[in-house]
Amino acid sequence: MTVSQQMRQQSVVGQPLDRVDGRLKVTGQARYPADFPQENLAHAVVVQSTIASGRITSLETDAAEAAPGVLAVLTHHNAPRLRANPPSFAVGESTPPPLQDERIYYHGQHIALVIAETLEQATYAATLVNITYAAEPALLRLDDARAEISAAAFPDVVRGEPEAALEAAEVRVDQRYTTPTQHHNPMALAATIAGWDGQTLTLHDTTQSVFNTRARLAALFGLEIEQVRVLAPFVGGAFGSGIRPWPHVVLAAMATRHVARPVKLVLTREQMYTSLGYRPQSVQRVALGATRDGQLVSVIHEGSEPLAINDDFREGLTRATALLYSSPHLRTTYRQVRLNVAVPTWMRGPGESTGMFALECAMDELAYALRMDPIELRLRNESSVHPQSGLPWSSRGLRECYELGARSFGWERRPLAPRTMRAGHDLIGWGVASGFYPYNRQAAEARIVLRADGSALIQSGGTDIGPGTATILVQIAADVLGLPPERIRCELGDSAAPLSPNQGGSMLAVSLGSAVQATARQALEQALTLARDDARSPLRGASPAEVIATDGRLMLKSDPERGESYAELLRRHDPGEIVVEGRAAPGDEAQQFGTGIFGAKFAEVRVDEDLGRIRISRLLSVIAAGRILNHKTAASQINGGAVGGLGMALLEQTLMDTVSGRIVNANLADYAIPVHADIPPLEVLFVEQPDLALNPLGSKGVGEIAIVGIAPAIANAVFHATGRRLRHLPLSMEQLL
Ligand code: MOS
Asked: Among positive and negative, which fits the CA dihedral 428, 434, 439, 440?
């Protein structure tokens, strides 16, 4: 039996437990941010700019204010002056608060808010707001020579002499890859219900962090942190769009203070395309030089993306390239171009999913230039240490992912040459690509309550936007407390509960899971101390080290008959419960080790030879993310990411009119995302190597490694099927014809 099999046998952690909140969700009892009924609720609708650059010269609200049911119209004339943004919790976030002046930075900027008795009245009145603009020439194209280029975000990474080494290399590839703007499109519309009682601002908000929202609002409105409470017990997806508190959340807070009533603001699907960020488009160059036997000698990766005029968001577009493969010479360069576009943000494996599309397609091109198997090329360039820092890996597992995946996929049956496999009218291709996402962990806190009825409650302000965080927290606590999982409840998403990092960057399971584990240990310790010091307890005098907890019962290791249940113990005591707040934080392991989450993605495509129609017939994800906390929810995450990757590869693109700056397909009819009929059988395999150097759970997070590498694996499979190399996403029929 392997170590991980033993761990699984003995523990609840790892088991494919059903979601603890699954029943609540499918029976409609789980309440999402728009689902909290309020007395005397008013409705707010945003008005957005219809130019991309310039200023408002007049903004007439008389007709809107006179429309039936309208309570108020907020504009830069009458909106409260807010404090400048506080120092940002999130790197690069610097968008100024809304309705502070007449400047327009992008098409779709919020410029007024109509508040009315009903949604219909507010929606109608919003059409009556009369705006005139002084438009200025807008910068809308990445290649606009007038645009300011920002290099401040990430410094170039340089090793050796990459240009000279490329020039001298025996074999070279040097290509340009482009990816389009893409939007998160979570199923739920972004919603905020805000209430103000003169003292306290309370928000139900679609967010990945109630603490981010709380901090932002308190700072902007000059309130104490305790005067703001944010709740998000359930969130209907976000994919990165809920990490920041966006301007509409500030508008909802303004509105409730202005009309002294609770106000509900739900963005429309169309409005969400300019209000919640998006994955920025990219233009990338990857140049690889290698020896004839496939050793990389030079890697150059340059990428540029847009940057909003009024913000400094950046992502790690070229970040993975310096650490994925060993190469003595390397340069990565990331530039941003300031444009009159809405503010971009993190989306599904931000940085890596875009950057590694280019890198992993280029690796495939190099493999063909060398006439070498693409897996073999990658394995020849594996690095036993982190290629940039020289530190040993805490764990890596990429080689094992390729080996396991190749066996499972049947890779040895793959002819290297393209256009060699077919079924009837379809050309068949098999492609592969590496996945990587950084390992992240932050400090987190949790509260655990042990109750006299023998149950336990976990509370944290962390949010669960869908991956199953509550479920794995219950499993972690179940193991430590020796309680069956069905006796443990988990409440999340309340800023009045202990502090948690946001659910983003694949870090929450490990960050909050470690905190729950530490807190549960303290709770157990307190129960054992209580029993030891209790003359009526069968465990009186027993040192905690001699006692184990199983199935809700505390007992002597040496004599299981001697013991009692949590319920029996706590019923004898006042107040009949144990409440513990605990914390866990990372140490210096990230300075001692190279860290990261790795995966290998395998795709099989079928391309209709006449029509160029691309269908995916198999997708295999092999993931090395340390110990897997729940094999069911983790596999579900990986499958969800694979579907996102399929969308990225074949369907998703946001189109902007580069004259007006307007998004022309801001709806789910024209912005295509995968439907069930697009999804082939999905397979997930884990290379499970518990990584106890990183954290006490030995886990790494599976949120974003799920998507990274899917799109290049598909593009490489299309090449293998057709002999045609597509370097622009989404891959399309038009490009093949
Ligand atoms: Mo993720 S893009 O950090 O929600």
From this structure: negative
Pocket-testing residue among 209, 212, 239, 441, ligand 1, by greatest number of atoms within 8 A of Cβ: 239
Ligand 1 centroid distance, CA of 349 (Å): 6
**666 contacts 655 by C-beta, under 8 angstroms:** no
Cβ–Cβ < 8 Å for 492, 480: no
Only one residue has tokens 């884990």, namely 686
**Average pLDDT of every residue of the chain:** 96
Q: Residue 35: is it exposed, middle or buried by C-beta count within 10 angstroms (0-12/13-18/19+)?
A: middle
pLDDT tens column, 248-282: 999 999 999 999 999 999 999 999 999 999 999 99
Q: List all residues 6 or more positions away from 643 whose beta carbon is below 8 Å from its beta carbon.
A: 674, 679, 682
Distance CA 328, CA 387 (A): 9
Residue 713, both tokens: 């694996």
Token readout for 302 is: 């340059």
| Residue linked to tokens 């789980």 | 30
Q: Please say whether the beta carbons of 143 and 95 come within 8 A.
A: no
Count CB atoms within 10 A of the CB of residue 39: 7
Closest CA to 300 of 158, 411, 403: 158
| Overall average pLDDT of the 150-156 stretch | 80
Q: Write down the pTM of the prediction.
A: 0.97
Q: Lowest mean pLDDT: which of 30-44, 152-166, 477-491, 668-682?
A: 152-166
Q: Which atom of ligand 1 is nearest to the CA of 241?
A: 4
